[in-house]
Write a structure and sequence with these properties.
mainly alpha
Amino acid sequence: MASVTIDILTEKLKYVPQNILDEINGYLDSISKTKNVGYKLNQEQQNILDSQLNSDKSKYQDAELLHDSLKNKYAL
């Protein structure tokens, strides 16, 4: 799946009516300000999450490649 870029969003929004753009803008404002996720992590969980967020992403395998590899390996 291709990542979303500003150019892709700009192209998709080029001919959208102003009232829809206003709604999208309001939605973006609300999700960017949302801090309460409805749960609280304990310190150990927070440390694990932080280590994953700060890890070297080059060590990860692309999900689609992993999926294809598993399909081929197990003849799915």
